[in-house]
């Protein structure tokens, strides 16, 4: 984008920033975005390098010290087979931070393509596809996931595909309405007069101009994807053992909650909460920066 | 209306396909890997799963419409009583959540809008938004820890003792309904708030104020009526969400509702149970959407008068 800007006829001495740089600067000024980003980056760092600074092996059991409450030795206590909860919480960010972004990516790619097609062609294609997508959106993700996972078996790929495809219609709806406004503009008419193919007009001419709403929708969806992955893992249909995943750990340990072993679930719950809120704060910041 | 029918049809196809693309076959899944092939074939034939797909779909759906939901693979008895019982339980839980969240959510939104950009508004808006984005099982776990384990005010399981009266059941349902409450509160309060802001900013409100009506009358008779219409639609669209939430909450609290019925059926690969459960909530959703449309047109004079002419 900046390359395009430098060759544009805008005189250099005005020192105007490109639109993307503008967004970037207003993001840096947004406290909401920075706080959200800091939380997310913290968990990304844990996902990447967690095992190097986790005090224990997150998978190593130690039956003699099972269900030990938090102490100076085990900051967050140990779980029912003596694994260190602190180490598990740190390393537990890895799987959810792989699966949720991939699902969001899939949703964005599929949703953008669908939105461009329905918005650009309108007419019958739009009517039929949009009705089906709307109907599909009314079905809760948990139900779709339950069905797909029972039919196809549990794997990270299934989870990514299910969440990705469930979210695609929502992104498609956003992209479609943006495309509907864009396609009336002169540059689209110019491309059509040059006899550019529909594919070229959609993906080369229109797409770059509808990036902002796509970006906002993608960041918002990432929050929901984390929500969905955590929920599916908790239900036993998401990330599978022996991963120290947060949702999975809660599902393995909450049965003993009545016995007062709160440390086996509380820290995982707080970890999920902080990640979801962090992503949503960042998304809020992106939304604000792009709509100023 | 037509949309919810399309949703329902799509759902039935998905449910049916989900049941059919199952790896391995049903007879094998029930009888286990060491059963004789002839026994497996015979069971498949008895269950009717060796017929062509279209025949099976038609048979299944036409039976379902007539109230015959098939026979559970696991319990070897008709599915319908299980589904009806579970649906009743889920309705109780959903009702408690709704009765709590609708007035409180609307009140929150209205109070926030009347204190626009003041601390109270910030607290309600930000608080509502933060709890809305959290997964139900996360808020559920934290609430269980606070009210069930540390304070010991509320039971941590929703399974009430046999023959429990209305108030005992209510007591057991408070904790499970709270996570649903928290998620819905954010949505409802946000809609009520933005509806209020718009109505407060409108010409008719200014007219009402300028002609000297008391502030109370302006709010009650002019602002609230207009502000709350969109909120009703939001509440109705949340039934779809609520159903998804029930699956999680009922599992977490070991409550015998339709959500945990679907969950258990999915784990046990009990297809008739799973299919009927999901289709039943699809119907509930369609009916809820219909009622919302009806309510909306009843409350909105512009639509009501149009249809009278």
From TrEMBL, chain A:
The chain crosses the membrane at residues 32-50, 96-121, 133-152, 158-175, 222-240, 260-283. One of its GO terms (biological process) is transmembrane transport. The keyword Transmembrane applies. It holds the Pfam family BPD_transp_1. Keywords: Cell membrane, Membrane, Transmembrane, Transmembrane helix, Transport. CDD domains: TM_PBP2. It is found in: Cell membrane. Its main location: membrane. The keyword Membrane applies. InterPro entries: BP-dependent_transpt_permease, MetI-like, MetI-like_sf, OppC_N. One of its GO terms (cellular component) is plasma membrane. It is a multi-pass membrane protein. Belongs to the binding-protein-dependent transport system permease family. This is Peptide/nickel transport system permease protein. It comes from Rhizobium loti (Mesorhizobium loti). The lineage of its organism: Bacteria, Pseudomonadati, Pseudomonadota, Alphaproteobacteria, Hyphomicrobiales.
From TrEMBL, chain B:
GO terms for cellular component: plasma membrane. The chain crosses the membrane at residues 93-114, 126-150, 170-189, 227-249, 277-296. It is found in: Cell membrane. Keywords: Cell membrane, Membrane, Transmembrane, Transmembrane helix, Transport. One of its GO terms (biological process) is transmembrane transport. Pfam families: BPD_transp_1, BPD_transp_1_N. Residues 87-296 form the ABC transmembrane type-1 domain. Gene3D superfamilies: MetI-like (1.10.3720.10). It is a multi-pass membrane protein. InterPro entries: BPD_transp_1_N, MetI-like, MetI-like_sf. SUPFAM superfamilies: MetI-like. Belongs to the binding-protein-dependent transport system permease family. This is Peptide/nickel transport system permease protein. It comes from Rhizobium loti (Mesorhizobium loti).
């Amino acid at each position: 984008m900046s390359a395009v800007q430098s060759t544009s006829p805008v005189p250099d001495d005005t020192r105007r920033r490109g639109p993307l740089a503008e967004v970037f600067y207003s993001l840096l000024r947004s406290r909401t975005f920075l706080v959200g980003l800091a939380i997310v980056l913290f968990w990304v760092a844990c996902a990447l390098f967690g095992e190097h600074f986790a005090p224990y092996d997150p998978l190593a059991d130690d039956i003699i010290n099972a269900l030990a409450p938090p102490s100076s030795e085990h900051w967050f206590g140990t779980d029912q087979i003596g694994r260190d909860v602190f180490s598990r919480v740190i390393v537990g960010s890895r799987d959810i931070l792989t699966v949720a972004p991939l699902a969001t990516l899939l949703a964005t790619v599929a949703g953008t393509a669908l939105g461009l097609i329905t918005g650009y062609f309108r007419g019958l294609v739009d009517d039929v596809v949009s009705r089906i997508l709307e109907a599909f959106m009314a079905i809760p993700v948990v139900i779709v996931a339950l069905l797909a996972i029972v039919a196809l078996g549990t794997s990270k790929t299934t989870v990514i595909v299910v969440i990705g495809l469930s979210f695609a219609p929502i992104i498609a709806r956003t992209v479609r309405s943006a495309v509907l406004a864009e396609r009336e503009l002169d540059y689209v008419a110019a491309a059509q007069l040059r006899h550019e193919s529909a594919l070229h007009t959609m993906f080369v001419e229109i797409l770059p101009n509808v990036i902002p709403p796509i970006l906002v929708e993608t960041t918002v969806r990432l929050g929901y994807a984390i929500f969905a992955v955590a929920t599916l893992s908790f239900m036993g249909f998401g990330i599978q053992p022996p991963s120290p995943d947060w949702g999975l750990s809660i599902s393995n340990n909450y049965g003993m909650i009545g016995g007062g072993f709160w440390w086996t679930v509380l820290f995982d719950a707080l970890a999920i909460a902080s990640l979801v809120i962090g992503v949503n704060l960042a998304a809020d910041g992106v939304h604000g920066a792009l709509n100023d | 209306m037509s949309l919810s029918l399309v949703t329902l049809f799509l759902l039935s196809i998905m449910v049916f396909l989900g049941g059919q693309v199952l790896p391995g076959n049903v007879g094998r899944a029930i009888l286990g890997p060491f059963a004789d092939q002839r026994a497996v074939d015979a069971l498949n034939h008895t269950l009717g799963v060796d017929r062509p797909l279209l025949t099976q779909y038609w048979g299944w759906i036409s039976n379902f419409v007539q109230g015959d939901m098939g026979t559970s693979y696991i319990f070897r008895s008709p599915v319908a009583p299980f589904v009806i019982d579970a649906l009743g339980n889920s309705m109780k839980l959903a009702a408690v959540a709704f009765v709590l969240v609708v007035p409180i959510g609307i009140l929150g939104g209205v109070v926030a809008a009347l204190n626009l950009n003041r601390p109270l508004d910030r607290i309600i808006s930000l608080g509502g938004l933060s709890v809305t984005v959290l997964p139900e099982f996360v808020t559920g776990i934290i609430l269980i820890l606070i009210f069930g384990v540390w304070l010991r005010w509320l039971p941590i399981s929703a399974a009430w003792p046999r023959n429990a009266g209305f108030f005992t059941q209510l007591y057991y349902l408070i904790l499970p309904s709270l996570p649903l409450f928290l998620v819905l509160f954010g949505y409802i309060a946000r809609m009520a708030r933005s509806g209020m802001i718009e109505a407060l900013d409108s010409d008719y409100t200014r007219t009402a104020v300028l002609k000297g009506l008391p502030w109370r009358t302006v709010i009650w008779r002019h602002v609230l009526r207009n502000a709350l219409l969109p909120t009703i639609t939001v509440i109705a669209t949340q039934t779809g969400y609520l159903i998804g939430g029930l699956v999680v909450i009922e599992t977490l609290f070991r409550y015998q509702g339709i959500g945990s019925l679907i969950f258990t059926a999915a784990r046990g690969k009990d297809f008739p149970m799973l299919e009927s459960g999901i289709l039943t909530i699809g119907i509930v959703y369609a009916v809820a959407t219909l009622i919302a449309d009806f309510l909306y047109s009843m409350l909105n004079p512009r639509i009501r008068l149009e249809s009278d002419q």
